[in-house]
Design goal:
The protein is of the alpha+beta class and 342 residues long. The chain folds into three domains: 147 residues, PAS domain (Beta-Lactamase), CATH 3.30.450; 31 residues; 144 residues, Reverse transcriptase/Diguanylate cyclase domain (Alpha-Beta Plaits), CATH 3.30.70. Helix 11 links the parallel strand 13 and strand 14. The longest helix is centred in the middle third of the chain and has 36 residues.
Amino acid sequence: MRFLDDSFTKNFEERRDEIARRYPGNVTSQSEHLTLRLELALEALEAGVWEYHPRSGELLWDRRMRELFGLLDGAVQGLSYDDFKKSLHKDDLLLVENALSEALETGRRLNGQFRITKPTGGLRHLRVSGMPYQLPTGETIVVGANWDVTSDVVLHEELRAAEVKARAQNEQLAAAHAEMERLMLHDALTNLPNRRYLDRFIEENLGLGLKTACLQIDLDHFKSVNDSDGHAVGDEVLKIAADRLLNEVPEGGFLGRLGGDEFLALIVGPGSDLEARAIGERMLKSFKVPMLVAGGSYDIGLSIGIAVSDDGVATKLMAAADEALYRAKSAGRSQYAESVSC
């Protein structure tokens, strides 16, 4: 017989020569020793050996093969390729047939994994390794071995499931951490940034030598809403106010609620002084529209103090804006005032 895979032939001949060197004697004794080693290796691997004759469709199995497939009750001889196909999982049938056909056509090693269904209904995963070779008659057949890898597959699937579960748990923890951080940095009522967030924004954006404008903002007559109609209405007014203010702050700017009816906006970069004035005017205009809450109409105005710093020093900038806010309120509210110097 002639093996069609040259590398396999070379390896086989090297093993045979090694046996001859270690165990001198006649060819028969050497062949017997090589056969014994092969049988022991197959036994250790718990592998079954088969031989497939494509012309006749005959499939020769040893006892271990029949154990793997759950077919111990019949004769070892006489199985056909159709008997083998009946045991294959329906989703693996085409894969196995294509691999076997390719091995016969090309002479390449057959190597892979497939699933079978035992007569009792149990699903098993088998590994296959086979090699085509030619008989003296010229017929090409395939001889190979199968062994059960179900436990390995199950373990791999369990590890993969555990990995997926761990990844999902890590994502949940990350999401929970992000949500906790968001809650820490945002006002629960309006969802605007709070004082903690303001401190972070100042640390990351101010003190870089860039021109910065600050708008200190208070709602006019908000306390009377709380006193007359209750905190529930007051909360809705604050939410509407936050949305209106936020609509006027450009992307990259900052708007936060500092507490009560106090808000603060920061604009960083060249031209921030002119932009701050325009923002203040738009904010005042947006609050001329009454707020409708719980069937009531509320006229809520704004007082705004604007300060601009060329070096972006936060402490003196916000102090100057606060002073300007005080002057806006003293001048009659519903307007903005600018700091003389910062």
